[in-house]
Amino acid sequence: MRWLFSSVLVTLLLAGCGASPPPLSTAEAVATTLAAEPTLRWKGSWTYQGDRVSVDVRTMGAGDLTGVLDVGGESERLVVTGNRQLGRTSGWSVVFRRPWQNLAPDALAKLVREVGIAPTTGDAAYARPPGVATDALHLDLPNVGTLWLSAGSPHPVVGYSGDHLPASGPIVTDPIPIALTATRGTVAEATETYRAMAADLRGVPGLIPVEFTGKAFEVDAVTPPSRCRRGNCPIEVTGHNVSDRYHLRPVVRAVLSGNLKSAGECLVRLPLAAPGATVSGSCDVDDKRIDEIWAASGDARLRLVQWQADPDVQPAQYYEPANGVELADQLTARAARP
């Protein structure tokens, strides 16, 4: 379900036929109304690549968000504040490139001011979401999507539709058919939401998994013993974390050979390595070929085997500090003045 949260940008070709209806408000008036919203609740559902997608999130301020996203029956709770984006299914993890927070009131107000296009009626770049009134105004945001506004003054936002969520940056995924309705919330609702987010963050572990597929562990030394016997050969691996950001739990496959003949393998599961840290671990190869290689190396009085272990770094689990308590304190402060 990771495709759903990728940050994307789609170029809208707004080709018009005939004269456009006169504007019924101004971009600045719409932005002012948006910026004054304590909270917006966004809900919607659609089908994408055979999966039913359901969204129910609440946004506040410039990018604070919490709610639930369900894709094909798999639910994930989101808590987003500042640059920290967390998701929880069976446990909390860091998630990247999820621009749901760009539906926050201040973020949308900024987009509307930057574009400077007034809302209007007539044809829109994207279809009106189910649940949005037929007389709703729309504001097409180039490179973003269509923002839907109530026909009544001061024209609060009532929906959003597009191929991507509001965002900026390069296109990194295929379009997703988004259709959301928006409901205005009260100051009391925003306050309660901030408090709930803070409670969630206080329960987040100190280190949480990160979605990262690169390799940040380098092996410095692999030390097999000079002599293996009785079908057993211990191997020690030492290496260091080259990342300056992530903690990781390295896993190294050690492949043993004797006199250039395969003698088995084992997995070295090293301890958690902080950024820049050096760690060591060991494993034992238990394989009957060890004795066979030893027996074939010469007569009983003079046997010589050159043992060698080659490392193969496996995909590791990466972690980074959640800073949950610090973020919870910030949200608690916002709860007092949403």
UniProtKB/TrEMBL annotation:
The keyword Signal applies. Residues 1-21 form the signal peptide. Keywords: Signal. It comes from the Bacteria. This is Lipoprotein. It comes from Tenggerimyces flavus. The lineage of its organism: Bacteria, Bacillati, Actinomycetota, Actinomycetes, Propionibacteriales.
